[in-house]
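Weekly sync notes, structure subgroup
Attendees: PM, AL, DS (notes)

Item 1: joint prediction request from the bench team. They want all two components modeled as one assembly rather than separately. Inputs as received:
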Amino acid sequence: MPIAGSEIVKMLPGKKPCKDCGFPTCFAFAMKLASGGATVDKCPYLSEEVKAKLVDLLAPPIKLVTVGSGENAVKVGNEEVIYRHEKTFVHSPGIALLISDKEDGAEVEEKIKKIKELQFPWVGVNLKANLLTLHFASGDKNKFLALVKKVYNSTDAGIILISEDLDVLFAARDICADRHPLLYPITKGDIDKAIPRIKENLTPVGLRGESVEQLIPLTIKLKEAGIEELVLDPGSKNLLEAIRDQTSIRKAALKQGFRPLGYPTIAFPAFMAKDGLKEMLVGSAFINKWASIIVFSDFDKYSLLPLLVQRLNIYTDPRFPMAVEEKYYEVGEPDESSPVLVTSNWALTYFLVSSAVEAAKVPAYICVKDAEGLGVLTAWAAGKFSGDSVGTFIKKCGIENKVKHRKLVIPGKVARIKGELEDALNLKWEVIIGPRETTGIGAFLPGLAKQLKG
Amino acid sequence: MDYKAPVEAYTGVVREVTIGKGNKSLKIGGENILPLHFFDQGSNPNPVKFALEILDMKPEDWPEHAVEPFKDVISDPVSWAKKCRGFAVDAVSLFLMSTDPAVKNAPADKAAALAREVAEAIDVPLIVYGSGDEKKDVEVLSKVAEVCDGMNLLIGPVLKENYEAVGKAILDHGHTAIAQSPLDINLLKELNVKLSKIFPPDRIVIDPLSSALGYGMEYSFSLIERVKQIGVITKDSMTMMPIIANLGGECWKTKQAKENKKQGLLWEGMTALSLLLAGANILVLRHPETLKLIKETIEAR
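Output from the run, pasted for the record:
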């Protein structure tokens, strides 16, 4: 919970306008601290105790945790809102593939290949899963350590280590410590034994409780020991429990400002569902409901793509619609008799129209009008895609110098702007009503192109 | 530091809307909690419901794996509707595609007669969607309302452009209305305000338009989430109506759903589950296997 500048100023010396912090008054410094524009150490007159208290108060309500290293480091946490429409979600969850040391060599190879090769280009971004989870299930320590070595040497993915046996867990950690692996699970039963071992070589720690409440004394204890990169597993066994637990943790951190629960979470669809498709569905619910790392027993091209698209959708900033630049675009190599289509500048609209035109194999011009990133119908309803404004755009965008004909295709959903648009274009253009859906472009465009050529 | 689990108690209650008549009736809405928030104070007397869609004509662009569960009945809407019953649906949703001037421009009375025949053939309530052509729908939906007089179908889309005429027909013949607006909370409220002047608000279901995963799903997700919260948390009367998420058709027209069956089921399933978690009260799906997967996922204990 962010603290106000007026609260901070009460804790500052405030006696003299020393300006040693670089600000004219303590109050100005306090305001800067509150907005994140300055750090506490700039004031030389604070006691260690007050300093520590301020640092704590000013920390983000959900701790930022990094699993993995280098290019493949996955950062989670630091979220600011409960619902994405309040502002935006920030750090999209890590998607992890689980490998058990009970799986045979071929299965292991196959999964390593999946994490490397399953990548999907999607509206200008590259989607992929980014973590591997290694599970000690065989009971054979050497077998597990061999798996950890293999994965460490053959990939640069971030690693999550799962072992109920602390000795095995820390031995595995020692193999890949520079990869900043997440150690899981630390529980009520073994936390005291674990603390000194964790401190030997600090990496993130996953805590498992049987409830949200059970996690609280554990996080407090670890924080006191100086271990703060924590990830929480409240032990949810099904979707309903998951929603309850994730909601409690998120609200405790953001609404109640309750520090002991201000950490990212980890979820295990891998252990919650038996059927592969249901496992993916549970995982998708965890994307909506705030999990920060989500572990799957397996996935394939057909199941990973929808999951990653879901993650992209939910973590898109709702304040900035993805938009493309206002201008005419060429699809293929259009000439002076190629069709001209007009649409709005929501990235998705443009993506759908251009891929439909491409698929139709008809070179064409797509005039994209700035409608503040809205889809065609919404833009029309909001007055951003009226006949008048589309007309003004067509006249100034330069398309009139590119084609000899004067036939303009508008989306079928806004058929009603035809008259107004023709008027705005001084009746020099004939406005043709195109398909209502982009799926209709394939059938529509070749006929029009033929007509324009002939 | 003491911890107290954040338990909320809200004052808004979503109107409970009944569709269908007698032993064919179904209640939706009525909750004063957020979706699946059974840990808060309050309840949801009518947990989320599921409908399957059927078309009034043989579908032309469905992939084989979407046709497969109905391949023996796909040309006969009445048998198709009856077959839905085998998949434990709460309702059937008939889409009058063929009436679209851009499709077959089929006449209103033919569509209305079919709606009646389907409604009589099934033992669950019927949802009827017109083509969405605002002019033709006035004719088609009014006729459906008249021919199915007193059956309390859930009929839509009632749009800003035609709510007066369509709303009146739906009201006069004892049905329930789907008020549809294009993905915008202000337009949605404005339509509900206007419609409520001539139509009882406890017989309105909101359709905020459902976009498919990857094709604007996040807009539907956040809009539904907001509508639900404004209703339940801030008690805004004009958003305290149940929400219908008509998503099956949107999902199955994507390339990704068409090219692979399992990918299609997940495309539809993840869209459905997202909108359910956002606050939809009734979901209209296309594939019976998606329905089964979603039900089992939310009912797992």
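Discussion: Chain A touches chain B through 61 residues (CB under 8 Å).
Action: AL to compare against the crosslinking data before next sync.
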